Structures are given as structure tokens and as C-alpha cells.
Amino acid sequence: MTDPSEEQARIYEERAEAYDALISAEDADGELERALERVVSIDGAVIADVGAGTGRIARTIGARAQKVHLVDRAGPMLEVARRRLEAQGGVDFEIHLADARALPLGDASCDAAIAGWVFGHFRHWMPEGWRLEVDAALAEMRRVVRPGGTLVVIETLGTGHEAPRKHEALDEYFEHLERAHGMARSWIRTDYAFEDVERAANVCGSFFGDALADRIRRERWARVPECTAVFASSRGES
């Protein structure tokens, strides 16, 4: 039986360009930047982008930051991020090939740490020990953030959903973020916008499955609804 974490890692290693085509269509209305503005002092900040992927967080807010450290364990994803950020210009960034649970950054070296769509995978990959893994990753984020800085975790509340969905496993993880780590939750729409219905079905279907692709075609969605949670907390003085 294939280890789900290894299968997901293989996707990120082998399909970085396809993944980037997906996330480049996401958040058509720019809601994510506005949501981050409400919890992070972005301007002039040093930011750790944890599980950076192809750089969607850095591409969204990096031009306003002093510097963004992109950390990911998939080299091909980071190479796409590097290329996209260089083409975009105006972002001071550094690439780090590393795991979220062992960030290659100094203590209190960042003003904020943002983990976008990362730790929810732990809930599926490690059904018995996911809490310890999430705790370890958040401890690393807390370590690299200065006292008074901000920790942010961004997670899906459902692609193809116009309101937040219920999901037993992820809801358990979300409750852990809130109760064990004191993170406050808000949610936004991060809809995808494609040039036509067939493009939407093909791109979304390749990552989210045939059922969503079929629904996109049935609903005639060139704009695919999506809900996203934003969890935030301040790093204490201790």
C-alpha cells in the first residue's frame, strides 16, 4: 500500500508546473491579502513562508515585506516559486529546501510565520500521531517569530463549496488549532477564475478528482467557488 505522504510528496515533486497552474487561478478577488492584512503587519516585515510551494503567499504579499523566506521540502516547487518571483520582481526572498518541522531560520528572526495549506496533510498522513506533528511544526514557527509577532495557518474549507463545509477529520484538526494553540479562526472565499469551463474542469479535476470536474461541467463553472480558513495567534513574550 502506498504511503499517502509519499504519494503527496511525489505529486509535488513531479507536478509542480501543473500545481502552479491551479493556484495561479485561485483567489480571484484578492481576499487572501486582505485577510492577512487583518492579522499581520505586512509592510516592512520579515516573513517565514512555511510550506511555500510555488510561492503563492510570497507572490501575494512579498512586495510589501522586507524579506520572505520560502521553506518547502519539494525542490521543484521552490524552483517554480523562484522563477515566478524573479519574473514578478520587487520581492526580496530566500529559498530554503527544508521540512516545516525543522525550519532553517534563527530564533526570533521573523516578524511573522505563515503556513498555507500545509499541516492539514498531517491529519491524513499520520492519523495516529498528527497532533504531535502539528505541535512540532507550530513550535518551530513560534521559535522563529519574534515576541509579539504573528503565527498564521491557512487551510481549506472546501473547493467547490460556497460556504464552509463540514469535514470530520479536518474539523478535529481545526479544533486543535483553536483549543490547544489559541488560534482565532476567520474564513474567506478564495474562488478560482479560469478562462472557460473546460479549463476549470481539467485543472481542478487533475488535483481534486473527477467528481469535482464533473460538477464544474454540470454547473458550468468557469469560476469555481472555494472557502478558506485563516487561523492566527500572537507569539507571546515568553
How are the elements arranged and paired?
Layout: H1 4-14, H2 16-24, H3 31-39, E1 46-50, H4 56-61, E2 67-72, H5 75-88, E3 93-97, E4 110-116, H6 120-125, H7 130-144, E5 145-159, H8 168-181, E6 184-189, E7 192-193, H9 197-208, H10 210-219, E8 223-224, E9 226-234
Parallel strand pairs: 1-2, 1-4, 2-3, 4-5
Antiparallel strand pairs: 5-9, 6-9, 7-8
Structure description:
With 238 residues, the chain is of the alpha/beta class. The protein has one domain: Rossmann fold (3-Layer(aba) Sandwich), CATH 3.40.50. It has 10 helices and 9 strands. It has helices at 4-14, 16-24, 31-39, 56-61, 75-88, 120-125, 130-144, 168-181, 197-208, 210-219, and strands spanning 46-50, 67-72, 93-97, 110-116, 145-159, 184-189, 192-193, 223-224, 226-234. The strands form 2 sheets. The chain has a 7-stranded mixed sheet, with helices on both faces. Strands 7-8 form a two-stranded antiparallel ribbon. The chain is globular. 39% of the residues are buried. The model is unreliable at 1-5 (pLDDT under 50).
Tell me briefly what this model is.
The chain is α/β, with parallel strands linked by helices and 238 residues long. It is 45% helix and 24% strand.
